[in-house]
Amino acid sequence: MSQPQQSAIRNRLLKALTPDDFNRLAPHLKAVPLAMRQQLITPDQPISHACFVEEGLASMIVDTCEGRVEIGLAGYEGFVGVPLVLGTDRTPHIAMVQAEGTALRIAALELEAALDASRALRGVLGRYVQSMIVQVGQSVYANADYNVEARLARWILMTHDRLRTDELPMTHESMAMMLGVRRPGVTSATHILEAAGMIKGKRGRVIVLDREKLMELAGDTYGPAEAEYERLLAEAQGCG
Fold first, then answer.
1. Number of domains into which the chain is organized
2. Cα separation of 110 and 117, whole Å?
3. Is residue 95 within 8 Å of 53, Cβ to Cβ?
4. Residue 46 gets which letter from DSSP?
5. pTM
6. Which stretches make up the HTH crp-type domain (predicted)?
7. Same domain, 201 and 183
8. DSSP code, position 92
9. Using one digit for the tens of pLDDT, what is the confidence trace for 8-40?
10. Backbone φ, ψ for residue 21 (5° rounding)
11. For residue 192, what are the domain limits?
12. Of 41, 144, 152, 219, which is least surrounded by CB within 10 A?
Protein backbone atom coordinates (compact mmCIF):
# COMPACT_ATOMS: atom_id res chain seq x y z
CA MET A 1 0.00 0.00 0.00
CA SER A 2 1.40 3.41 -0.97
CA GLN A 3 2.02 5.88 1.81
CA PRO A 4 -0.09 9.06 2.06
CA GLN A 5 1.05 12.23 0.33
CA GLN A 6 1.07 15.40 2.42
CA SER A 7 -0.56 17.42 -0.37
CA ALA A 8 -3.63 15.15 -0.21
CA ILE A 9 -4.01 15.21 3.57
CA ARG A 10 -7.01 16.91 5.17
CA ASN A 11 -5.81 16.76 8.77
CA ARG A 12 -4.54 20.20 9.70
CA LEU A 13 -1.81 19.00 12.06
CA LEU A 14 -0.30 16.67 9.48
CA LYS A 15 -0.51 19.42 6.87
CA ALA A 16 1.32 21.78 9.25
CA LEU A 17 4.34 19.49 9.62
CA THR A 18 7.58 20.12 7.81
CA PRO A 19 8.12 17.73 4.88
CA ASP A 20 10.82 15.96 6.89
CA ASP A 21 8.52 15.40 9.85
CA PHE A 22 5.62 14.29 7.67
CA ASN A 23 7.91 11.83 5.89
CA ARG A 24 9.01 10.57 9.30
CA LEU A 25 5.40 9.59 10.05
CA ALA A 26 4.10 8.72 6.58
CA PRO A 27 5.41 5.12 6.31
CA HIS A 28 3.56 4.30 9.53
CA LEU A 29 0.23 6.03 8.76
CA LYS A 30 -2.62 3.73 7.80
CA ALA A 31 -5.98 4.96 6.52
CA VAL A 32 -8.80 3.48 8.61
CA PRO A 33 -12.58 4.02 8.79
CA LEU A 34 -14.14 5.58 11.86
CA ALA A 35 -17.45 3.91 12.71
CA MET A 36 -20.15 5.51 14.83
CA ARG A 37 -19.66 4.71 18.54
CA GLN A 38 -16.29 3.08 17.85
CA GLN A 39 -14.12 3.33 20.96
CA LEU A 40 -10.66 4.62 20.10
CA ILE A 41 -9.32 4.78 23.66
CA THR A 42 -10.39 2.56 26.55
CA PRO A 43 -10.04 4.02 30.05
CA ASP A 44 -6.95 3.00 32.01
CA GLN A 45 -5.71 0.71 29.23
CA PRO A 46 -2.57 1.19 27.11
CA ILE A 47 -3.21 3.39 24.08
CA SER A 48 -2.11 1.29 21.11
CA HIS A 49 -2.55 3.90 18.36
CA ALA A 50 -3.04 7.60 17.72
CA CYS A 51 -5.60 8.63 15.11
CA PHE A 52 -5.25 11.79 13.03
CA VAL A 53 -8.83 12.51 11.99
CA GLU A 54 -9.39 13.19 8.31
CA GLU A 55 -13.19 13.24 8.37
CA GLY A 56 -15.62 12.67 11.20
CA LEU A 57 -15.65 13.51 14.87
CA ALA A 58 -14.35 11.96 18.08
CA SER A 59 -15.35 12.84 21.64
CA MET A 60 -13.33 12.69 24.82
CA ILE A 61 -15.69 11.42 27.49
CA VAL A 62 -15.74 11.11 31.26
CA ASP A 63 -17.63 8.06 32.51
CA THR A 64 -19.25 8.96 35.84
CA CYS A 65 -21.63 7.21 38.20
CA GLU A 66 -24.40 9.45 36.83
CA GLY A 67 -23.60 8.83 33.16
CA ARG A 68 -21.19 9.90 30.46
CA VAL A 69 -20.20 13.53 29.91
CA GLU A 70 -18.27 14.85 26.93
CA ILE A 71 -15.31 17.08 27.76
CA GLY A 72 -13.66 17.60 24.37
CA LEU A 73 -13.96 17.20 20.61
CA ALA A 74 -11.46 16.32 17.91
CA GLY A 75 -12.04 16.47 14.18
CA TYR A 76 -9.85 17.14 11.18
CA GLU A 77 -8.03 19.85 13.16
CA GLY A 78 -6.58 17.36 15.62
CA PHE A 79 -5.89 13.83 16.71
CA VAL A 80 -6.88 11.25 19.30
CA GLY A 81 -4.07 10.07 21.55
CA VAL A 82 -2.97 13.23 23.36
CA PRO A 83 -1.52 11.34 26.38
CA LEU A 84 1.18 9.88 24.11
CA VAL A 85 2.59 13.37 23.52
CA LEU A 86 2.76 13.87 27.29
CA GLY A 87 4.81 10.73 27.85
CA THR A 88 2.11 8.43 29.19
CA ASP A 89 0.24 5.57 27.55
CA ARG A 90 -3.18 5.76 29.19
CA THR A 91 -5.97 7.98 30.47
CA PRO A 92 -9.08 7.51 32.64
CA HIS A 93 -11.17 8.99 29.81
CA ILE A 94 -12.87 7.41 26.81
CA ALA A 95 -12.35 8.48 23.20
CA MET A 96 -15.33 7.57 21.02
CA VAL A 97 -16.40 8.31 17.45
CA GLN A 98 -19.47 10.58 17.33
CA ALA A 99 -19.60 11.08 13.56
CA GLU A 100 -18.31 8.46 11.16
CA GLY A 101 -15.43 9.24 8.84
CA THR A 102 -11.80 8.29 8.30
CA ALA A 103 -8.48 8.72 10.07
CA LEU A 104 -4.80 8.11 9.56
CA ARG A 105 -3.71 5.77 12.34
CA ILE A 106 -0.20 5.31 13.66
CA ALA A 107 1.06 2.86 16.28
CA ALA A 108 1.88 4.46 19.61
CA LEU A 109 5.46 3.18 19.54
CA GLU A 110 6.06 4.67 16.08
CA LEU A 111 4.64 8.04 17.12
CA GLU A 112 6.71 8.10 20.30
CA ALA A 113 9.88 7.29 18.34
CA ALA A 114 9.14 10.12 15.90
CA LEU A 115 8.52 12.54 18.77
CA ASP A 116 11.85 11.59 20.33
CA ALA A 117 13.59 12.17 16.99
CA SER A 118 12.09 15.58 16.18
CA ARG A 119 11.72 18.61 18.40
CA ALA A 120 9.67 20.33 15.69
CA LEU A 121 7.15 17.48 15.56
CA ARG A 122 6.83 17.54 19.32
CA GLY A 123 6.28 21.29 19.08
CA VAL A 124 3.35 20.95 16.66
CA LEU A 125 1.61 18.20 18.61
CA GLY A 126 2.43 19.80 21.95
CA ARG A 127 0.72 22.99 20.86
CA TYR A 128 -2.35 20.96 19.96
CA VAL A 129 -2.33 19.59 23.51
CA GLN A 130 -2.35 23.19 24.76
CA SER A 131 -5.34 23.99 22.55
CA MET A 132 -7.20 21.00 24.00
CA ILE A 133 -6.48 22.22 27.53
CA VAL A 134 -8.05 25.56 26.59
CA GLN A 135 -11.03 23.78 25.00
CA VAL A 136 -11.65 21.78 28.18
CA GLY A 137 -11.29 24.96 30.24
CA GLN A 138 -13.94 26.65 28.11
CA SER A 139 -16.22 23.67 28.73
CA VAL A 140 -15.81 24.08 32.48
CA TYR A 141 -16.58 27.80 32.17
CA ALA A 142 -19.66 27.14 30.02
CA ASN A 143 -21.00 24.49 32.38
CA ALA A 144 -20.52 26.75 35.40
CA ASP A 145 -21.90 30.05 34.08
CA TYR A 146 -24.21 29.42 31.11
CA ASN A 147 -27.62 27.87 30.62
CA VAL A 148 -28.31 24.73 28.61
CA GLU A 149 -29.35 26.66 25.49
CA ALA A 150 -26.05 28.57 25.32
CA ARG A 151 -24.03 25.42 25.95
CA LEU A 152 -25.95 23.58 23.24
CA ALA A 153 -25.25 26.45 20.83
CA ARG A 154 -21.53 26.15 21.62
CA TRP A 155 -21.40 22.42 20.98
CA ILE A 156 -23.34 22.79 17.73
CA LEU A 157 -20.83 25.42 16.58
CA MET A 158 -17.88 23.22 17.52
CA THR A 159 -19.38 20.26 15.68
CA HIS A 160 -20.19 22.47 12.68
CA ASP A 161 -16.56 23.63 12.55
CA ARG A 162 -15.23 20.10 12.47
CA LEU A 163 -17.70 18.44 10.11
CA ARG A 164 -17.91 21.36 7.65
CA THR A 165 -21.52 20.64 6.76
CA ASP A 166 -24.79 22.21 7.89
CA GLU A 167 -26.42 18.83 8.56
CA LEU A 168 -24.95 17.39 11.74
CA PRO A 169 -25.45 13.86 13.09
CA MET A 170 -26.68 14.72 16.60
CA THR A 171 -29.24 12.67 18.50
CA HIS A 172 -30.84 13.81 21.75
CA GLU A 173 -28.83 11.10 23.47
CA SER A 174 -25.52 12.43 22.13
CA MET A 175 -26.51 16.03 22.94
CA ALA A 176 -27.41 15.03 26.50
CA MET A 177 -23.94 13.51 26.87
CA MET A 178 -22.30 16.59 25.35
CA LEU A 179 -24.01 18.84 27.86
CA GLY A 180 -24.12 16.58 30.90
CA VAL A 181 -27.89 16.97 31.25
CA ARG A 182 -30.91 14.69 31.00
CA ARG A 183 -32.73 14.26 27.70
CA PRO A 184 -35.77 16.39 28.69
CA GLY A 185 -33.39 19.33 29.17
CA VAL A 186 -31.98 18.75 25.68
CA THR A 187 -35.47 18.57 24.19
CA SER A 188 -36.41 21.89 25.78
CA ALA A 189 -33.18 23.59 24.66
CA THR A 190 -33.54 22.25 21.12
CA HIS A 191 -37.07 23.61 20.86
CA ILE A 192 -35.87 27.05 21.99
CA LEU A 193 -33.12 27.11 19.35
CA GLU A 194 -35.56 25.92 16.69
CA ALA A 195 -38.12 28.58 17.62
CA ALA A 196 -35.41 31.24 17.28
CA GLY A 197 -34.58 30.03 13.76
CA MET A 198 -31.06 28.88 14.66
CA ILE A 199 -31.46 25.19 13.86
CA LYS A 200 -33.91 22.67 12.49
CA GLY A 201 -34.21 19.26 14.09
CA LYS A 202 -34.60 16.08 12.09
CA ARG A 203 -34.49 12.49 13.28
CA GLY A 204 -30.89 11.95 14.37
CA ARG A 205 -29.83 15.21 12.74
CA VAL A 206 -29.54 18.92 13.48
CA ILE A 207 -29.46 21.35 10.56
CA VAL A 208 -27.66 24.64 11.17
CA LEU A 209 -29.77 27.53 9.84
CA ASP A 210 -28.22 30.63 11.40
CA ARG A 211 -24.64 30.38 12.62
CA GLU A 212 -24.49 34.05 13.63
CA LYS A 213 -27.41 33.63 16.02
CA LEU A 214 -25.80 30.53 17.50
CA MET A 215 -22.59 32.49 18.11
CA GLU A 216 -24.53 35.29 19.75
CA LEU A 217 -26.27 32.83 22.07
CA ALA A 218 -23.06 30.96 22.92
CA GLY A 219 -21.35 34.21 23.91
CA ASP A 220 -17.73 33.94 24.97
CA THR A 221 -17.98 30.22 25.65
CA TYR A 222 -17.26 29.90 21.92
CA GLY A 223 -14.30 31.60 20.28
CA PRO A 224 -11.38 31.69 22.74
CA ALA A 225 -10.44 28.02 22.26
CA GLU A 226 -10.82 28.33 18.50
CA ALA A 227 -8.65 31.47 18.40
CA GLU A 228 -6.03 29.78 20.57
CA TYR A 229 -5.88 26.80 18.20
CA GLU A 230 -5.28 29.09 15.22
CA ARG A 231 -2.62 31.06 17.11
CA LEU A 232 -0.80 27.92 18.20
CA LEU A 233 -0.93 26.32 14.76
CA ALA A 234 0.47 29.47 13.15
CA GLU A 235 3.17 29.59 15.83
CA ALA A 236 4.08 25.95 15.21
CA GLN A 237 4.34 26.51 11.46
CA GLY A 238 6.50 29.57 12.05
CA CYS A 239 8.90 27.47 14.11
CA GLY A 240 9.03 24.63 11.58
1. 2
2. 11
3. no
4. -
5. 0.93
6. 146-212
7. yes
8. S
9. 999 999 999 999 999 999 999 999 999 999 999
10. -70, -40
11. 145-224
12. 144
